[in-house]
TrEMBL record:
InterPro entries: IMPa_helical, IMPa_N_2, Pep_M60_3, Peptidase_M60_dom. NCBIfam families: ImpA_fam_HExGH. Coiled coil: none annotated. Residues 1-22 form the signal peptide. It holds the Pfam family IMPa_helical. This is Peptidase M60 domain-containing protein. It comes from the Bacteria.
Length: 919
């Protein structure tokens, strides 16, 4: 090669190096600006590498620092201190046997210092850097300090505790403690601190308070005496106060040593805020008094290496970041979840910050979180949902998964995928114009706490601002997009059909400021609230949002203009969701589901007359809740029976939510919200079935009719009412199988058995079938209906049962069962047909019998025998004592498939014969 060519290559290399270096500087400047603002709009494609490199470097440094600190504490001149500890043992004579686990609030906020053999957090430490100093904190789930101050408990732990305490005070486990240590405490025993320091050979001085105060109140945000202390100690009795968490952080940022010692199962508010300020949290109910040794112990064989490995919480994130830097590799994330776990570690970390009201772009020591969020912003627009293969393109799959996970919602800007968000939000939504000026919205809070749709939606990557105009004193508010509990799982779903978590978490709303909210995926906005009184109102101002297909009948019929606008949005289908509100319920469903369900109905017919009236109201009638009025007959019966049928005991449950999109289990799931795989809001058997799970009453669960059977009593009654009021027939042929029940009676009697033998035969015939199938479950469910039909005949004198009295019988059963559960006494036992019972322990079968007999006014023992239901002597003798006439064996026959059409049946008498079934 000639000298000229060599020179040219050298010059080119120098120029390229200079250009690359210059580009790096420029890229880092853009990144620094985005890190300060949280706005990714100024970033460019080449900044993705910069963001990832800086995140990897930051994570590596934090990981190394945690290992360095623990290595220092665990290693005493090459000799590892005894790591064993056994706190929270089953010895209630010893102090501190109570325990509530303590963990880091996130993988970057504190270090697991001592972890039990089964992974329970026993102790944690933290470092928090201020402008010029580093404060340190240490917390134990048990009152270790009291044991180390001179007892006989856990003395093998003293060398390790001393090294940890020395690190807390000096930054080095082998450092030299000052001869005098000035301390203050709150919620803790001063003598215990003094005794421990004296045991170490140090002079302990408790600092005086401000002014004439004897001691310093370090839990008060106005104290200044804390500056004179070297050590600040908190216990679980620390009084809660506004800003206590931030106050503890102030201490740490100023370089103070902060210690917390716990000694009970509970997690008091003040103690919780102290731990939060240290980057830690309680693990919930401890229960160590009943726990096995691995929960509260570190075995004597534990090595320092093992303890270091348990504390290496950023190891999985390290694997994630290494893979994100690679453009191609093979990986099966279903079997090796390390990288996925690393993604989720930081998802939980960022969520913990935001749900506690912190903006990571305005919170110190959050550089790693910020870098990952901005990296996710840069990669998010690169993918198309439905076209990402987990098996054939692992690199882009992991990038998409991380981009969908590292989210920050309380800022003004983010990025989105220009091709839409799969079945969560259509691409057309991105073109919808959001409001540029504030509008005022007033929301009624229907209960003390919950979540409610506000009727406005967020557009992907378009920022909204929410202000609290007026809220009742003591009510806390939050905002989130969507109220769904299942979103699919890209690890198992084919080709990544939608964002892995498109709904936001809940962000606390601050007063007197504009609260920013932005989502890459958009969605209906919901207000969360706590500390309210039912009926109170909240006034908000909001901008940067849209109106969509929202139908709000929770306060009566809304203006026609609002309904027309919602219907127009529904028909355009340019927004992914529709929501509805009505008395006692709310619904969120996809726009296609809503469009298919509403059909030609008006909004009121669709929401109120069909779903609320048939599914919700029927459920509440049968459950005996007092939001449903009593008939004159029922009112009279309650009075004659001396039952309180309208008191607070019968208050309905809270607002029930329904989601039609993806079910958390199977095809449909109960809970709140109840959800299903796109059934749509209709008064169908399935919705009534899932809601029924939430409100199963004791009398519904008899013998084998439990689980997926008893809740169908709610479905049966909804189908009855739906047909009677609206002509809807979702009944199904065998859901209530009266003719099969009658066939069982016929077959049992054909055996020639009598008395108890006949009853036992019927029990085996009817109640031991596979209740997963309608032909076995249907006859069981018919039993409850037959008893209700008898009520209409006896109490109302009806030739044929009608719907309202039929449901009324069930409402009275529910009310009576609740009264027995809470207000039964030996003096009132006869009011419930339980005069022979020494207490209110009664089987469900007996409960149905005694209450049914009292409500109908006849002794039902012969009818229960006909159905094969066993009864105790206490039950039959209690009813005998009342002198009620014996009910004759009779049956209301209904044709197959017409169990919801009551007017089509006829009564049969079975007391002395078994007539042929008429249908």
């Amino acid at each position: 090669m000639s000298t000229r060519k060599k020179l040219a290559i050298t010059v080119a290399a120098v120029l390229l190096s200079a250009c690359t270096g210059a580009d790096s500087v420029v890229s880092n400047k853009r990144v620094d600006a985005a890190l300060a603002s949280g706005d990714p709009s100024g970033l460019q494609a080449e900044d993705r590498a910069t963001l990832l490199q800086r995140a990897t470097s930051k994570a590596s440094a934090m990981r190394s620092r945690a290992q360095q600190v623990l290595s220092d504490i665990y290693n005493a001149n090459g000799q590892v201190p005894n790591l064993s500890v056994s706190v929270g043992v089953n010895d209630n004579s010893a102090p501190g046997y109570f325990s509530n686990p303590i963990y880091s609030s996130g993988v970057t906020q504190a270090i697991p210092y001592i972890v039990s053999d089964d992974g329970t957090g026993i102790a944690a430490i933290t470092e928090l850097s201020g402008d010029t100093k580093t404060g340190r904190g240490m917390a134990y789930a048990n009152d270790m300090l009291s044991w180390m101050s001179g007892t006989t408990r856990e003395q093998q732990h003293l060398p390790l505790f001393t090294r940890a305490f020395t690190w807390l005070m000096t930054g080095q486990a082998g450092g030299t403690l000052p001869s005098t240590i000035k301390f203050s405490q709150s919620g803790y025993n001063s003598s215990t601190v003094r005794n421990f320091l004296t045991r170490l050979g140090k002079t302990a001085t408790e600092i005086p308070g401000d002014g004439s105060a004897t001691t310093c109140n370090i839990a008060s945000s106005t104290n200044t005496c804390w500056q004179n202390a070297d050590l600040l100690v908190f216990g679980e009795s620390v009084p809660d106060s506004a800003g206590l968490r931030d106050l503890v952080q102030t201490y740490l940022k100023a370089g103070k040593a902060v210690m917390y010692m716990h000694s009970e199962w509970a997690d008091p508010a003040g103690a919780t805020h102290v731990l939060n300020g240290m980057g830690m949290k309680f693990g919930g109910y401890g229960g160590n008094y009943w726990a096995s040794a691995p929960t509260y112990s570190v075995s004597a064989g534990r090595t320092a290496a093992d303890s270091l490995a348990r504390a290496d919480t950023l190891a999985k994130l390290s694997t994630t970041l290494q893979l994100l830097a690679q453009d191609s590799y093979s990986k099966d994330f279903t079997t090796d979840t390390t990288a996925i776990d690393g993604v989720n570690l930081m998802l939980n970390e960022i969520s913990a910050y935001e749900t506690s009201g912190k903006n990571i772009f305005a919170t110190s020591n959050t550089d790693l979180q910020r870098l990952l969020v901005l990296w996710a912003d840069q990669w998010r627009p690169q993918f198309t949902y439905g076209q990402i293969s987990r098996t054939n393109d692992a690199a882009n799959f992991l990038r998409a998964y991380a981009s969908d996970s590292w989210l920050a919602f309380n800022r003004s800007a983010t990025t989105t995928n220009p091709h839409g968000q799969g079945d969560y939000m259509p691409v057309a939504a991105q073109q919808l114009a959001t409001t540029s000026s504030y509008e005022t919205i007033q929301l009624r809070l229907p209960q003390s706490g919950g979540i409610t749709a506000i009727g406005r939606g967020a557009i992907p990557a378009k920022g909204a601002v929410i202000e609290i105009v007026n809220a009742p004193a003591g009510v806390s508010l939050g905002i989130q997009s969507s109220y769904v509990r299942a979103t699919g799982n890209p690890i198992w779903d084919n080709n990544y059909p939608r964002p892995r978590r498109p709904n936001s978490w809940n962000l606390p709303l601050q007063s007197n400021v504009g609260n920013n909210f932005v989502s890459p995926f958009g969605g209906p906005l919901f207000l969360s609230y706590n500390g309210a009184t039912a009926g109170q109102t909240v006034t908000l101002k909001i901008k940067g949002v849209i109106k969509y297909a929202h139908f709000d009948f929770s306060n009566g019929t809304p203006p026609q203009a609002d309904l027309d606008a919602a219907m127009a949005s529904l028909q355009r289908k340019d927004y992914g969701w529709s929501t509805a509100k009505f008395r006692s319920g709310e619904v969120q469903q996809t726009i296609d589901s809503a469009s298919n369900s509403i059909g030609s109905f008006t909004p009121k017919q669709y929401v109120v007359d069909r779903f609320q009236r048939i599914v919700m109201d029927t459920n509440h009638i049968v459950s005996g809740y007092n939001d449903m009025p009593l008939s004159p007959m029922a009112t009279s019966l309650c009075s004659s029976l001396s039952w309180d049928c309208t008191g607070g005991l019968h208050n309905p449950p809270g607002i029930q939510h329904f989601v039609s999109w993806i079910a958390a289990c199977g095809d449909g799931c109960s809970g709140n919200p109840s959800d299903n795989n796109g059934w749509g809001l209709t008064p169908s058997w399935g919705w009534a079935h899932e809601l029924g799970h939430n409100n199963v009453q004791r009398w519904m669960s008899i013998l084998a009719c439990v689980g997926e059977c008893d809740n169908n009593t709610h479905s049966i009654t909804a189908m009855l009412r739906g047909y009677a009021l609206n002509g809807d027939d979702y009944n199904g042929s065998e859901n209530t199988y009266h003719s099969k029940l009658y066939k069982n009676i016929q077959d049992s009697r054909a055996t020639g058995k009598t008395g108890e033998a006949l009853r036992a035969d019927m029990q085996a015939r009817l109640w031991t079938g596979d209740i997963g199938y309608a032909d076995a479950q249907g006859p069981m469910l018919a039993v409850h209906m037959q008893l209700a039909f008898l009520y209409t005949k006896v109490r109302y004198g009806s030739a044929r049962p009608t719907v309202d009295p039929t449901l009324e019988f069930m409402a009275l059963l529910s009310k009576g069962a609740r009264l027995i559960g809470s207000q039964w006494t030996t003096a009132t036992a006869a009011n419930y047909g339980m005069g022979r019972y020494p207490n209110n322990n009664i089987s469900n079968e007996d409960l149905l019998y005694v209450l049914g007999s009292k409500i109908i006014g006849q002794d039902l023992r012969n009818i229960f025998s006909m159905y094969g239901i066993p009864l105790s002597a206490n039950a039959t003798n209690s009813i005998s004592d009342l002198g009620l006439p014996l009910a004759s064996q009779q049956f209301y026959a209904l044709a197959y498939g017409k169990s919801n059409q009551l007017q089509t049946g006829q009564w049969l008498t079975l007391q002395s014969s078994t007539p042929a079934y008429p249908f």
